[in-house]
Amino acid sequence: MPKIRVLIVDDAVVVRSRISKILSIDPELEVVGVAANGRIALAKIPQVNPDIVILDIEMPEMDGLQTLAAIRQIYPYLPVIMFSTSTRTGAIATLEALSLGASDYATKPSNLGSVEAINQHIQADLIPKIKVFGAITTPFPTPSTVDPVVFGVSTNPKRVEVIAIGVSTGGPNALSVLLRELPADLSVPILIVQHMPPMFTKLLAERLSSKCQIPVNEAVPGVVLEPGQAWIAPGDFHLVVQRDKGVVRLATHQAPSENSCRPSVDVLFRSVAEVYGAGAIAVILTGMGQDGLHGCKCIREAGGQVLAQDKASSVVWGMPSFVVNAGLANQVVTLDQMASEIMRRIRYKQIPISGL
Fold first, then answer.
1. What is the predicted pLDDT for the residue at 204?
2. Is CATH 1.10.260.40 the right assignment for the domain spanning 4-134?
3. Cβ distance 251 to 136 under 8 Å?
4. Do strands 238-244 and 80-84 pair parallel, antiparallel, or not at all (unpaired)?
5. How, if at all, do strands 52-56 and 80-84 pair?
6. How far apart are CA 30 and CA 139, in angstroms?
7. What is the b/e burial string over 319-334, where b = at least 16 CB atoms within 10 angstroms of the residue's CB?
8. Which of 104, 121, 176, 195 is catalytic?
9. What is the predicted pLDDT for the residue at 113?
10. CA-CA-CA-CA dihedral for 96, 128, 317, 238, to nearest 10
């Protein structure tokens, strides 16, 4: 197999050097060039022909957002991973980059003085994403209509009481597409786990809320769940629900990560299964890994329903594929049809199901 060719764009010499050194150790990767700003990077792309670009956001002359916009005009399918700081400014710019077509992002380690911390962070957070996106040699397929395949039988679904969503890579844009289509008078609450670090989740909630008919907020412990509201798990905290004297409240905790994730989709879905049982719909969207697989099993065992995003409309068909291949999805749905399918299931107690 040919190595994945990487171009590193960052104005800091120490960052370029450190990333180059770590990536070069991996036998599947090859650093074919470095650049100190966007202008140099644009000149180097046709020279070194990279499979993927690692792009800093804050740079002189031509910053990351300007560079990304230029790359998308000239090389619309070249994967770009933003390498951003864990600051408010960095988070805002990262979300903007994702909306402009960045493939994904990774955060820079906060302790740049610790070589070991940098090495571990890059190996755990950046390299897996490089391998996923760098191996893509053709454009993502155009979403197509999905045949409503059903993998299980449900004879009399309970009235839907909650929607729980799990999503990772490609999530901010997917959530924007889905949530914007839900009506202001939505009769159930929505709970969301998006794999993101602290601060990013709050800014994502604000960004989504500005575009949607329903309010979207970062989850606050103790809040009573009400219809027509969406809550996103805070970065570095698991989100769960608890029934308390006839009402359901949000709670967060910092138990160990599951599937290397905190927040974890599995943690939320298990909690939702316990509290809402057959009244839950789980929605598993685009993302790397298999977080959500066990939680979807719990939802189905409790009598709830599971919807999975289809491969064609997913940025990375990882999380949904595990659910679908395990036979846990009631239906596989394109992203642009997901909101209408959710509303169909909310509005009708009896969902026509064709069994196996």
1. 97
2. no
3. no
4. unpaired
5. parallel
6. 22
7. bbbbbbebebbbbbbb
8. 195
9. 54
10. -70
What the block records as the tokens of 295 is: 């939680």
Q: Is the N-terminal amide bond of 263 cis, ω within 30° of 0?
A: yes
Alpha-carbon distance of 260 to 195, in angstroms, equals: 10
Residues 6+ apart with CB under 8 A from 324: 151, 308, 332
User: Over 259-295, what HEC string results?
Assistant: CCECCCHHHHHHHHHHHHHHHEEEEECCECCCCCHHH
pTM of this structure: 0.89
Q: Other CB atoms closer than 10 Å to residue 32's CB: what's the count?
A: 17
Question: pLDDT category, 147, cuts 50, 70, 90?
Answer: very low
Tokens 């596989």 -> residue: 332
What is the sign, positive or negative, of the torsion defined by CA atoms of 261, 262, 263, 266? Answer: positive
Which phi and psi (to 5°) does residue 315 adopt? -65, -45
Over the stretch 233-272, which tens digit does the pLDDT of each residue have? 999 999 999 998 889 999 999 999 999 999 999 999 999 9
Taking all residues of the chain, what is their mean pLDDT, rounded to a whole number?
Answer: 90
Catalytic (active site) residue 294: no
Common-topology check for domains 4-134 and 162-347: yes
The hierarchical CATH code for the domain 162-347 is 3.40.50.180
**253 catalytically annotated:** no
CB 244 within 8 A of CB 222: no
Catalytic residue among 11, 56, 266, 291: 291
- Per-domain boundaries in the chain: 4-134, 162-347
Asked about 168 being catalytic, the answer comes back as yes
The catalytically annotated residue of 103, 154, 168, 176 is 168
81: Cα separation from own chain's centroid: 14
